[in-house]
Design a protein that fits this description.
This protein is mainly β and 363 residues long. It has 4 domains: 85 residues, Immunoglobulins (Immunoglobulin-like, Sandwich), CATH 2.60.40.10; 84 residues, Immunoglobulins (Immunoglobulin-like); 83 residues, Immunoglobulin-like, CATH 2.60.40; 86 residues, Immunoglobulins (Immunoglobulin-like), CATH 2.60.40. It is 0% helix and 48% strand. Strands 20, 22, 23, 25, 26, 27, 31, 33, 34 and 35 form a 10-stranded mixed beta sheet that branches. It is flat, with a radius of gyration of 29 Å. It starts with a strand and ends in an 8-residue tail after the last strand. This is Ig-like domain-containing protein. One of its GO terms (cellular component) is external side of plasma membrane. Keywords: Disulfide bond, Signal.
């Protein structure tokens, strides 16, 4: 009796991985076998003992069976091997034994991927929020490393051939005992209102005489841009979303503090729902398109959400197209969007009223 086995003993398979199923025939050693497979979502299964699927997707989930024939030997169909493919890409998790390296000592970092096995790990380090990440160790079978240098660390997992990578873990900041002070950045609010601004404050606890440098990044791994240098004021006003941090400096030559921890600021912009055509009346059976327009959102890649009557699956794009509209589509439509460090609130309601066809007295 043949059996279908997965080449790797992975308990969970993710979309995008490459996997191999094998048809193994007990007592079939030394024979030349011809193989047949039954599988979901394919009209041309292989005729060899291996069933390789590149960039597996959810549609490959289901039961796989095989059988073989050789001269005057014939097997029955194997028991079903049920393949389940997860739709979401996993994210690695980085944990630290401590956030501070003691003088002359080290700290242990651990990288893991919840609920699955077979991973090797890449480790990255940055000196500061403004520097690029450097690969410090690659393809490590051990998920634990020891570090004796401060910095921002993150990791990712990889497995298979070709290698399938997880999402990068969140960064973990590891400090080292030192006498150098650290600046502290605080924000009046984490969201800039539409057309408004937010005040940031930078300080160095327990000391005076500092001037401040201010920095902004577009994303977690992009380079930092200096937006203010040597300001004697400890506050600034900003009207743009992003990741901000500051540092203090005083004396000649300048002695600088450690950079502050980064603070994420989002900017709110306005969304509005509009009908593609300026029709004052909509009739049943027509096809219409509603658009979510974001003021000041040009050049950005937006993710959209909609609320609408009579549906459990609104679109995720900027357009809401309804074919053969009916009276049941009447009601309030709202949208909102998010992009990097920009976000909108829900738009004002657009009220859609659908009338019966012109040649009908009732619907």
């Amino acid at each position: 009796m043949p059996t279908v086995n997965l080449q790797h003993s992975w308990s969970q398979i993710f979309t995008g991985e490459t996997i191999t199923l094998r048809c193994e025939i007990q007592g079939g050693e030394g024979k030349v076998w011809k193989y047949e497979w039954t599988a979901p979502n394919t009209n041309s299964p292989p005729t060899s003992s291996e069933y390789r699927i590149s960039r597996v997707s959810v549609s490959h989930s289901g039961d796989y069976r095989c059988r073989g024939s050789s001269d005057y030997l014939l097997t029955g169909w194997s028991d079903a091997f049920t393949l389940t493919v997860s739709s979401s890409k996993p994210r690695a998790t980085l944990t630290a034994q401590s956030s501070i390296i003691p003088a002359g000592g080290s700290v242990t970092l651990s990288c893991s991927v919840e609920g699955s096995a077979g991973w090797k790990f890449d480790w990255f380090r940055r000196d500061s929020v403004s520097s690029k990440a450097q690969l410090m160790r690659g393809n490590e079978a051990n998920r634990v490393i020891s570090v004796s240098q401060g910095g921002l660390y993150h990791c990712r997992g990889g497995r298979g051939d070709p290698v399938y990578y997880t999402e990068d873990s969140q960064s973990v900041k590891i400090g080292k005992n030192a006498s150098k002070p650290r600046a502290t950045l605080t924000a009046q609010s984490s969201v800039i209102p539409a057309g408004g601004s937010v005040t940031l404050s930078c300080s160095v606890e327990g000391s005076a005489g500092w001037k401040f440098d201010w920095f902004r990044r577009d994303s977690q791994f992009s380079g930092a841009q200096k937006i203010g240098a040597g300001t004697s004021e400890h506050t600034i006003s900003i009207s743009e979303g992003g990741i901000y941090y500051c540092r203090g400096g005083r004396g000649d030559p300048v002695f600088s503090t450690e950079d502050s921890a980064p603070v994420t600021i989002q900017k709110q912009v306005l969304a509005a729902v509009k009908l593609q055509h300026s029709w004052s009346q909509i009739f049943t059976g027509e096809t219409i398109t509603l658009r979510c327009e974001i003021q000041g959102g040009e050049g950005k890649v937006w993710k959209y959400e909609w609320t609408a009557p009579n549906t459990n699956s609104p679109p995720t794009s900027s357009e809401y197209r309804i074919s053969r509209v009916s009276v049941s589509h009447s009601g309030d439509y709202r949208c909102r969007g998010s992009s990097d460090y920009l976000l909108t609130g829900w738009s004002d309601a657009f009220r859609l009223t659908v009338s019966c066809e012109l040649d009908h007295d009732s619907c």
